[in-house]
């Protein structure tokens, strides 16, 4: 009987609770077009209760509050509105009015807290999901290059490297990319992975780019900027969205150097998100991109001014195999000793060193130019309380792209996974994640081609005195004796020595390439076996409820790099090398002078286990509101960056008789042992560096590599004028100390002995990372104007310049940027009947500039470029769809973003977009 009574009591209480809870339903529409509006916030005033409209503009909100209730309705791009609800009996129809976004953008990354972009203490650029949706570019990584102060290097479709303030190169280790709170870097190489494990095109909520040093809040290696990307919340952005793009590229024109020919371009993206109830939601994302990649065809001679027809020592930037270069003087002397009658021909050739390079292979036909990229993501969220949320997510990327560094790398079938668990509230978060990589079947273009040349015919076989160079020398003397001039004789000698050389795509060529590229570097091949991992845990707390007189944010971070390359990238013969980092930071901010002046200071301490001393990073800023929506900002930042794992510990085959080396004392003192194909420690040899005179070597003095640092000052002004003009101007000045670059050194002052070819250890060259002794200064300025022209027309223009002083001429510093950039945008987000038409156009102009490829691959002038992207779109409102027709590089005038990087032509495309109006 007691159980029956308790059961009835429970049922009654349950019914009473449900009678008290009321459900309101409604829809949100655009007042101008009567289209449903998704992701609109519907909040009960003075309450934490709220929800979002779904992809059809519908919402449902359950509450125990008594009528009447006031709802606060808000969304970026619309005017906020309050709605009085007096009954739950019928659906609520709400319309909201479009509003300008100028001056209303909010950012988080500038100070790790929400604030208006206008009042940010440092320069910050932003892309919203609406801007990404309306852009003519094919992906948001391409959109980044139109932002003020941003430089990019495009290695291939699918691999774009980003930086700010001039230090521009592929795989920039001084630029940080953060995706949903996770560092998007390769655990072993330490540079951001671009699109590999970033968000899919449909899942980006917003992107914020911090220009210049940002280490105070985001840690070491943020000296050249930070990009923070935030994914869409499945509670807010719901439903199924599809983006299908079909296009064509490699459309040749009369001036293009494109060997490929017209090829299809595919990009398919899908996103599905579902709010199961008020506590649980999930999302699933997938994107697949496939196309014939752009091809690098730079024929710049790295060994001098001549061409392959005039210089026997020709080594083209994108011709692989020519790095094997030998002074044939010993062979000429041997021929003279064997036949003194050749003296009239040979003696003139002995007047100076006579260097000859092996014949290189062009990139097209050598590297597979099929680019593909697949990435999938899943995320689950659970609201423990209205203000406390648990998140688990996983992202997996795989594919094949080409990357430029000391040579071109065909990264084939790479695999990267990133997995996160997080607890997040309004005041704090605890986050843990891991990044795990598999380098796949990466082919290193230069060394592989050199070893292919050695495999079909060695440069010199000391056992029988034969080889490519003896054949070349004999044929050269025969041609000269027959009366041929120097150039003709060289070509005849090369043709004779190249007899039997396997052609690109031949069975022998493919067999040699596969054998060499599938054998690990540690066994004499060129295959990376990088299986490095990164583990990270961090926490942050906002003390505003405890400390009343100022805003205080503090956090801690722990990171472990588990470097595991099987002795192909690092000297990890005995097992993975563990490198740990510890850091803690605090930020304090306060408003004074009647809240007109905002003062902020930040401090961060970082410790890396490869280096004895921790480093302190600091930032101080002041923002003064001169009058409404007009702000003057000033900031000082002191930032340190520990050398990357590559700069500290690399031990990699870089070519025939050539290696790349880190500069850490762990290598210099031989604490880590090198593989048998690099039997050295730098302290055990006499290393020499090439001077300005190519035939003279000077002693290279090396010490333990140290962290680099920068002191940066910035003064800026941002304003919104008459709610129509948004203006931002700035100037900056930075001083760099212990700048990290590379030098080419050798373990002997040179050799004239042909026996040097018997053993790779006899004469070995090294590309070593080191700190420059000079103080380097960089400075620049920038300005941007955004104009709301009314009726959904918007125009933007920005101009910026970056300069460097006192650079170390013996060091590759990667300051690759023109003296100025100009970017312009003009578009309309909705015109015509019911605003179903829209268009957008972009123009990016860069004058010509000098570019040096990291690792010494090549150097030269990049021609000026003017690139126009354009798109027109038509909405199919009844089917929640849109058709877009557009092009990147509309004029199809091929351009490149750096020496030895590919020539980029037009992509003409048509896109079907579902549920992303």
Task: Explain briefly what this protein structure is.
With 917 residues, the chain is mainly beta.
Can you put this structure into words, describing what you see?
It is a single chain. By secondary structure, the chain is mostly beta strands. A hairpin with a 6-residue loop joins strand 32 and strand 33 (615-627). The longest helix is centred in the N-terminal third of the chain and has 19 residues, at 2-20. The relative contact order is 0.11.
Q: What does the secondary structure layout of this molecule look like, with pairings?
A:
Elements: H1 2-20, E1 22-30, E2 41-44, E3 50-52, E4 58-63, E5 69-74, E6 81-85, E7 92-96, E8 106-107, E9 115-116, E10 124-128, H2 129-134, H3 140-143, E11 150-156, E12 159-164, E13 176-179, E14 182-183, E15 204-210, H4 215-218, E16 226-231, E17 239-249, E18 263-275, E19 280-292, E20 319-320, E21 325-327, H5 329-338, H6 343-346, E22 355-357, E23 361-362, E24 370-385, E25 388-404, E26 408-425, E27 428-438, E28 443-444, H7 445-456, H8 468-481, H9 486-497, H10 507-517, E29 533-542, E30 551-563, E31 577-592, E32 597-608, E33 615-627, E34 630-641, H11 645-649, E35 651-655, E36 658-661, H12 665-668, E37 688-690, E38 697-699, E39 708-721, E40 725-737, E41 740-746, E42 765-771, E43 776-790, E44 793-805, E45 821-831, E46 837-846, E47 849-852, E48 859-862, E49 865-876, E50 881-888, E51 907-914
Parallel strand pairs: 1-7, 13-16, 36-42
Antiparallel strand pairs: 1-4, 2-3, 2-5, 5-6, 8-9, 10-15, 11-12, 13-14, 15-16, 17-18, 17-51, 18-19, 19-24, 20-23, 21-22, 24-25, 25-26, 26-27, 26-28, 27-29, 29-30, 30-31, 31-32, 32-33, 33-34, 34-39, 35-36, 37-38, 37-41, 39-40, 40-43, 41-42, 43-44, 44-45, 45-46, 46-49, 47-48, 49-50, 50-51
Helix pairs in contact: 7-10, 8-9
């Amino acid at each position: 009987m007691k159980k029956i009574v308790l059961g009835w009591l429970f049922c009654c209480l349950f019914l009473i609770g449900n009678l008290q809870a009321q459900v309101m339903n409604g829809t949100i529409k655009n007042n101008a077009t009567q289209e449903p509006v998704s992701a609109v916030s519907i909040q009960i005033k003075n309450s934490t209760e709220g929800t979002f409209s779904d992809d059809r503009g519908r919402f449902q909100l359950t509450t125990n509050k008594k009528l009447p209730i006031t709802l606060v309705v808000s969304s970026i791009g619309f005017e906020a509105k309050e709605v009085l609800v007096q009954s739950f009996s019928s659906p609520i129809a709400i319309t909201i009015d479009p509003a300008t976004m100028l001056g209303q953008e909010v950012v988080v990354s500038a100070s790790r807290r929400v604030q208006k972009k206008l009042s940010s203490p440092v320069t910050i650029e932003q892309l919203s999901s609406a801007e990404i949706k309306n852009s003519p570019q094919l992906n948001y990584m391409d959109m980044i290059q139109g932002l003020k102060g941003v430089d990019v290097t495009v290695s291939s479709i699918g691999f774009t490297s980003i930086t700010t303030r001039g230090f521009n190169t592929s795989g920039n280790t001084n630029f940080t990319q953060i995706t949903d709170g996770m560092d998007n870097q390769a655990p072993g190489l330490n540079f951001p992975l671009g699109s590999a494990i970033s968000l899919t095109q449909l899942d980006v909520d917003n992107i914020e780019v911090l220009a210049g040093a940002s280490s105070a809040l985001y840690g070491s290696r943020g000296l050249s900027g930070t990009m923070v990307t935030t994914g869409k919340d499945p509670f807010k952005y719901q439903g199924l969205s599809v983006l299908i793009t079909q296009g064509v590229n490699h459309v040749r024109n009369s001036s293009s150097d494109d060997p490929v020919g017209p090829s299809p371009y595919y990009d398919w993206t899908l996103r599905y998100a579902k709010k199961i109830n008020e506590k649980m939601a999930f999302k699933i994302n997938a994107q697949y991109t496939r196309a014939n990649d752009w091809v690098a065809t730079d024929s710049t001679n790295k060994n001098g001014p001549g061409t392959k027809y005039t210089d026997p020592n020709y080594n083209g930037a994108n011709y692989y195999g020519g790095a094997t270069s030998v002074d044939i003087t010993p062979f000429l002397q041997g021929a003279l000793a064997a036949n003194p009658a050749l003296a009239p021909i040979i003696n003139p050739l002995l007047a100076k060193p006579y260097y000859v390079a092996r014949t290189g292979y062009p990139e097209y036909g050598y590297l597979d130019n099929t680019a593909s990229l697949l990435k999938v993501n899943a995320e689950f969220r659970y609201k423990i309380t209205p203000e406390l949320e648990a998140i688990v997510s996983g992202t997996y990327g795989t594919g094949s792209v080409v990357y430029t560094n000391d040579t071109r790398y065909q990264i084939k079938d790479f695999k990267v996974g990133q997995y996160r668990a997080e607890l997040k509230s309004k005041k704090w978060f605890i986050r843990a994640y891991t990044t795990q990589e598999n380098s796949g079947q990466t082919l290193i273009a230069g060394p592989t081609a050199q070893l292919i040349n050695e495999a079909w015919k060695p440069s010199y076989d000391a056992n029988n005195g034969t080889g490519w160079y003896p054949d070349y020398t004999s044929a050269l003397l025969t041609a000269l004796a027959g009366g041929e001039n120097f150039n003709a004789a060289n070509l005849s000698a090369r043709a004779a020595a190249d007899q039997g050389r396997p052609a690109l795509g031949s069975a022998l060529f493919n067999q040699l390439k596969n054998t060499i590229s599938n054998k690990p570097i540690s066994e004499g091949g060129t295959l990376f076996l990088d299986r490095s991992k990164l583990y990270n845990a961090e926490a942050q707390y906002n003390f505003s409820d405890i400390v009343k007189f100022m805003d205080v944010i503090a956090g801690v971070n722990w990171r472990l790099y588990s470097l595991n390359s099987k002795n192909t990238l690092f000297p990890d013969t005995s097992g993975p090398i563990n490198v740990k980092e510890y850091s803690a930071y605090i930020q304090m901010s306060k408003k004074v002078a009647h809240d007109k002046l905002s003062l902020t200071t930040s401090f961060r301490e970082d410790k890396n286990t490869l280096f004895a001393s921790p480093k302190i990073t600091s930032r101080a800023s002041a923002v003064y509101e001169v009058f409404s929506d007009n702000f003057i900002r000033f900031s000082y930042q002191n930032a340190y960056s520990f050398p990357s794992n590559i700069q500290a510990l690399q031990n990699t085959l870089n070519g025939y008789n050539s290696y790349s080396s880190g500069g850490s004392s762990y290598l210099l003192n031989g604490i880590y042992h090198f593989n048998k194909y690099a039997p050295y420690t730098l302290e055990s040899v006499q290393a020499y560096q090439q001077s300005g005179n190519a035939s003279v070597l000077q002693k290279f003095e090396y010490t333990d590599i140290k962290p680099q640092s920068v002191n940066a000052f910035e003064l800026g002004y941002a304003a919104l004028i008459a709610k129509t003009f948004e203006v931002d101007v700035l100037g900056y000045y930075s001083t760099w100390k212990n700048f990290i670059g590379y030098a080419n050194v050798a373990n002997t002052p040179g050799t004239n002995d042909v026996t040097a070819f018997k053993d790779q250890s006899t004469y070995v060259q090294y590309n070593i990372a080191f700190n420059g002794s000079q103080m380097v200064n960089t400075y620049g300025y920038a300005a941007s104007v955004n104009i709301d022209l009314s009726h959904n027309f918007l125009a933007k223009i920005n101009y910026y310049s970056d300069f460097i002083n006192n650079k170390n001429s013996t060091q590759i510093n990667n300051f690759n940027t023109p003296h100025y950039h100009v970017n312009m945008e003009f578009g309309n987000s909705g015109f015509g009947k019911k605003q179903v038409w829209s268009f957008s156009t972009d123009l990016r102009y860069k004058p010509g500039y000098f570019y040096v490829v990291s690792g010494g691959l090549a150097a030269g002038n990049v021609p000026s470029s003017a690139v126009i992207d354009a798109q027109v779109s038509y909405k199919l409102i009844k089917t929640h769809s849109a058709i877009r027709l557009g092009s990147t590089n509309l004029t199809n005038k091929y351009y490149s973003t750096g020496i030895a990087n590919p020539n980029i032509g037009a992509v003409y495309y048509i896109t079907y977009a579902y549920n992303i109006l």
